Amino acid sequence: MGGITTFSYRDAVKLMGASEHKAVAVLDKLLGGTLLAGSVLGIPDVLSWFDAKADLIRFSHEYAVKLSEKRSGISRYDRTQRLHAAHTVIVLVSFFEVVDESGVPFSTADLGFLQKDGVSLAKVLPELAGLATSPVPLVSPERPYEDNLEALTRYYRGLAVGMTSFVRGLAVWDDMDERQRGLLDDLHEAACRRYEENIRRLAVDCPEFAFWSSSQDHQATRVVVRTALAEVERLFATLTVGNTPQQRRAELAHWYHSVLDSPIIAPGEVPDGLTIPLFRDCYIDPRFQVGHPSGPAQTQSWKSLPVRTDAHDFFVGYLTSPKATQVPLLVLGDPGSGKSVLTKVLSARLPATDFLPLRVELRTAPTEADLVQQLEHSLRTVLDEPVTWADFARSADGALPVVFLDGFDELLQATGVSQTNYLKRIEQFQHDSAAKRRPVAVIVTSRISVADRATIPDQSTIMRLAPFDAEQTGRWVQAWNDANGASLDVATVLAYPELAEQPLLLLMLALYNALQPLSGTISEAQLYEQLLVSFARREIDKDVEEHSPEHVEEAVEHELQRLSVVALAMFNRGTQWIEEHELDRDLAALLGERPERTGTRKPLGPGEAVLGRFFFIQRAQAVRDEQVLRTYEFLHATFSEYLVARFVWRTLENLLHAEKSASRLNRSRALDDSELYSLLSFAPLSSRQPVIRFLDELAGESAIRADLAAMLLRIFYPANRHRDKTDYEPVPFTCRADTPSTAPTS
């Protein structure tokens, strides 16, 4: 696919045509038939445009107003196209206005000799030769206002250079004084100022222009912490052009809107006695960055882009812009950053008169199906009846379908490379749909960690959800306290920034506080231990029939060991997620779990999702050939790093206990440290600094620190001795030729 399609002046006037507006025919006649013709302008043609510039200006303003004022009887897509055309006209007419006012005295009668006689204008002055046919820049809501003006200034500079070169080749140049020649040098800046004046006047009746350009008029409101994207609904109410929705659209709109009055988490998932706030009260409008950085999965790539707080302005501008129906918008975020909730709340806020949303959870869609089949799978689920995509799109009745594809990362992680061109296929789908007069906007969400594994269309806008700042965290805590009459202390929450900056982790912190009030005096290791223990105990209490304290504590410890194996699986493979079949293998090697085990310690066998019940574990899921494929990832890397440190520490404690027991029986027997050796043979603990920090905290709180240090020194010196190979092998060993194949090299 090519770049974003923008209109030329000729495209813009053809959109309406002479049959709808007589000025088009009159202007075409004044311009010698060059307006609607398909040819490149020659020298006389260009001069005819400047000869008729007064009429061109007058008719263009009239035409732009005519294009933009019509609201009733057209679709949301047609409204966008007409505004696009009106913008194109305003861009070009602004240039002609400043040329007219500059007093440059030339017309057809002033035509002298070009410096290169006989050379066509198209070769000498391509800027002016394409006056009617070259695409005109379109402002974009993804760029700051100043960047939009800079793009227009570059365009005007090209026209001004062409204009100056053109006039230099005419006999009239010799008659011009220095003031008049100086005016030509400043044409691009004057044209940009005139554009601002013209578009500001037009935006009074067509507010979309202000949202497209990210104009300064809206920047004063961007510091307010808002909730539930309520401003999106209010702003769209001022732009509506559609009709009252028919039954299917009305049902779907009501279904999506109902999420606003739903609790942010199912009541059955929380401790008794808590009142869970609603989405409309507790969903905090995100801070975000937008652009198209190289390497979008790398945090460093986003450093130069400003963080914005005007999500309402951005979405209104984007969904009313031509770009929305040409390429997908990609929304990236960390696990727990609120990507899925964003699609729920935004689909609830889109007015049914102008938009027809469809949310598709890709984790439940068949991965082997094409995009249309995935859409139809979701339609059948939501509407309780089979509906083809074509019929659904036709039923829009002027509203613009907006498809939310939630969880693209789940396809990538669970299915590998087979979906790397998925975004390009979406772009082609949008192109084909527009060609069939069934335009569609598409918004795709994905975890940022997998973004580099996908081929992203060149012109796609990428939106990154930024972590909460202190104001957002405070607003969320206020909503939580308002619902519960509780006093979750903001200052205490902010003492743990890694948990306070992501919505889902913040919820976890609030739930933990309901069980055991937070204290800002405990160490980070103690906090993570208490968090993990409390949530594991809650899950055990749901499943365990025997409630003796000893049994529960044993079950809790086993759950934490499982979680630690998940963390080690990622750590030793150098990845941020782990596939279920790899995890099954590691659980069997380290904990001896097998699929046939029953009781409270249920293994993670194929098709099971025991770990998915924990807040701090994110499960990616896809369905292929009716088989569920899963991967696991921690909501925040710190959970994984603590669990790695915890497992290593527990292994050291067990090893010290074994040494002391063995020393009483047989002092000459070598200590079997094969498990510790295997755990530490694949990745250095120092590769994650927090792991070392947590180990230091655990050791600092332990009475056996000195004994452990002495033991480690004793087993360090013979570290290269032969050991029996264990079953734990997350990645294949590389063995030296002189080393027995049963022993790993370090």
UniProtKB/TrEMBL annotation:
Could you tell me which residue ranges the NACHT N-terminal Helical domain spans? 6-217
Q: Which InterPro entries match?
A: NNH7, P-loop_NTPase
Protein name from the UniProt record: NACHT N-terminal Helical domain-containing protein
